[in-house]
Amino acid sequence: MLIDAHCHVWRIGENDCRWPGRDLAVIHRDFGLDDLRAAGGPDGVVLVQSQPSARDTAWLLEVAESDPLVLGVVGWADLAAPDAVEAILALAGNARLKGLRPMLQDLEDDWILSPAVAPAIAAIVEAGLAFDALVRPRHLPALLTLVRRWQDLRVVIDHGGKPTIGEGVMHPWRDDIAALAAEPGVFCKLSGLLTEAGDTPTAQALAPYVAHLLEAFGAERLMWGGDWPVLNLAGDYAGWRRMCEAWVPPDRRAALFGETARRFYRL
């Protein structure tokens, strides 16, 4: 069973959808699950929030209720809000919600370590939810501190931590990823890398980064994601899947393309 651990849907101008803008013409339109099916989609998906909005999360849960393709939802909550704990526990009452993603890539490097956020992290742990870390390489040291501080927090690093593939830079991303992979509660997504490759979204450009992720996490803690439809900015769904299959030994594909996501997200 092919499980895509990272997909998006959106309706431009609805459910607080303000991204993508018109500057990203390829993906500036509505995308739904039938579009994913038409692209050669998987047997099951984890829908991930694309807007920092409670309304977007509520809508994703409605989509999940109406379509059996959706195995789980990773939503959003304002972790620094005064009512964050209550909001998180209320969301966790919906069995379709599997995790939360605060979109750290646009926040200060150490925002997640703020004392104001600590009650929300405790609530995520209490509720048994996963934590999707949408980060850039500059956030990885703070993420490591978070993981060591909250050892019961189940963390998955989205898009391999967004290495700067387009510039051919490996360090310090390489060492920071290795340090995080040494923590047994940390998982990672093999997703979103084509759009980090700049003008050269090729297998050759991605290969050393993917090799490091496979070495660091193994297929047992690495899960495949399409990052569709953002993927359309740099490639296509079937091509990305074929590219990743070529990197993974046949005996490890069942884990990377399904079993790891099922186990991590408790699907």
UniProtKB/TrEMBL annotation:
The keyword Hydrolase applies. It holds the Pfam family Amidohydro_2. Keywords: Hydrolase. Residues 3-267 form the Amidohydrolase-related domain. One of its GO terms (molecular function) is hydrolase activity. InterPro entries: Amidohydro-rel, Metal_Hydrolase, Metallo-dep_Lactonases. Signal peptide: none annotated. PANTHER family: AMIDOHYDROLASE, AMIDOHYDROLASE-RELATED DOMAIN-CONTAINING PROTEIN. Belongs to the metallo-dependent hydrolases superfamily. This is Amidohydrolase family protein. It comes from Caulobacter sp. 602-2. The lineage of its organism: Bacteria, Pseudomonadati, Pseudomonadota, Alphaproteobacteria, Caulobacterales.
